[in-house]
Structure formats: structure tokens, C-alpha cells
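Session log. Operator J.P. requested a structure for one protein chain; no other inputs attached. Running the standard single-chain path with C-alpha cell output.
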Amino acid sequence: MARPEVGDEVTADLLDDLTYKPMTQLEGQSNTNLTSGNNIAVPFSAGSEVYDDEGWHDTTTNNTRITPTIDGRYRVSGRGVLTANLNCTAVATLIQKNGATVAATGNHKPNGTNNIALMAPFLETWLDMNGTTDYVELILNQTSAAAATQTTNNTASGRSTLIVQLDRRT
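Structure written below.
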């Protein structure tokens, strides 16, 4: 949609176009192994799309990515959730745009006395996206005793989540 000009007729269709804020919300449905100390992009496979209003996500090709098709400013948020494991000493959530980190939580120190799913805090940022080639990914990095491998959680107790919503067109 072209930006309206001063003097344009205000119609219901124009108002709908101006207020429409499409989004994609993904929740992890499969386990992903995370080797201690490595940044790993979380894949979102079949069944992971809670919302995908404009088809910005593909569950098979580049399934770690959300690639918006509208030029604009976006609200991007995400959270990593790992399975219960007493060996994990830290979890960090990162948001990357085109492979470069643009936002990150500090290392979240899980409570090592409870054998529960490890949830990093939600991370939120605002990004300008070009509507063609720009993409975002949720990246997790965990640290474990003895360089152990941890696994993302995919049960009702919590799932890794990535949300991208258009805020305004540019």
C-alpha cells in the first residue's frame, strides 16, 4: 500500500491498511541440542506457527528465520526454554538480524536446585526491516558443567518463542 497523502479520502479500506499489524509467532515443537558455549539458531518446524499472517516463516526452508515482506519497523521478541537439567549454569537469548546480534540478554543463571525447565527472560527490541532480504532469528547459548549438551524444551511447561510484529510501515 502506498502512503496516504494529505487530502486523500479517508475510507474504511484505508483505515484497515493503516492499522493492520501482521505478525508471526513461533513456538518450538522439536528438541534441538545446544552444545555448551555455542550460539545455536532455534529451528521452528511443522506445528510451530501460532500466527503467520503474511507467510513470513517457512517450516522447512530456513526454518530458523522470519523474513517479513513489508518494509517497516518491527517489534521483535523471543525467549529460550531448555529442558530440565541440573548441569546448566547459564542461558543467554540473542536476537540476530541477518546473522548479526542486535539484542541479547545477559547470562540467566538458572536455579540449580530445582529440576525444572530453564526459561531465559523474554528479550525485546525494535528493528527496521527492508521487506525483502532482512530476516531475524532466535539464538540460544547455554553453558554447562563439563561442556554438556542441553536440549530445548518443547512441552507444555514452556517452549522457545520468537515473535515478529509490524509496528509501522516506512
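Operator note: Residues 12-19 form the longest helix (8 residues).
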